[in-house]
Automatic annotation (TrEMBL):
Pfam families: adh_short. InterPro entries: NAD(P)-bd_dom_sf, SDR_fam. It comes from Streptomyces plumbiresistens. Keywords: Oxidoreductase. This is SDR family oxidoreductase. Belongs to the short-chain dehydrogenases/reductases (SDR) family. The keyword Phosphoprotein does not apply.
Amino acid sequence: MSEPRTALVTGGARGIGAEICRQLADRGLRVLVGARKREAAEEVCRAIGPAALPLALDVGSPLSVTEAVREAGELLGGGGIDVLVNNAGVSLDGELRPPYLDEEVLRATLDVNLLGAWRVAEAVVPGMVRAGYGRVVNLTSSYGSLALMDSGRHPAYRVSKTALNALTRMLAGELAGTGVLVNAADPGWTRSGMGGAAAPRGPEEGADTPVWLATLPEGDGTTGGLFAERRPLPW
């Protein structure tokens, strides 16, 4: 019997991230639950069961990313990570809108939403390429779509997600033909720490499209796309 695929989910301790972990485990994957606080990851793992393993991971810290991937290799007995779901993200904007700029907020937002995803991808994607199989899912937002952008609300968040969309397209192009598929998923306005209690969608719905993209079957060539509710959105 072959070993199950292994997925790493960043920001996996709550909300959509925790639900993505649960749904992936339900589909037979072994799941590394990444969270800044190991205790929070352990709590999610207890709820999921033995298919989930806790991993201390702060995507805003290059050192933390390096240490987490090293630890993941030890936990997996030398095995690799087959699926990466870049879910960790922040929304730090207040009421400020362009042309006014809060550089500190922009830098802090980019450091997690863009550079955090990039750091983790840099650490794990080469192993996927060597294995000839991989799925990378970047959680984004329609707020980052240039085609749909019509206001300056949440400016730092929007810019960070637009940049993440660009990273998704670049990675997909670079990895074409390697067996590694790279896509972006908009979970929609979902009840979570970021989305708030008024959001119309529950975490189960928000996790559906990311999990679908994370488990695309071999032979499926879907890559370089932006999806919401399993349907394409314009970039």
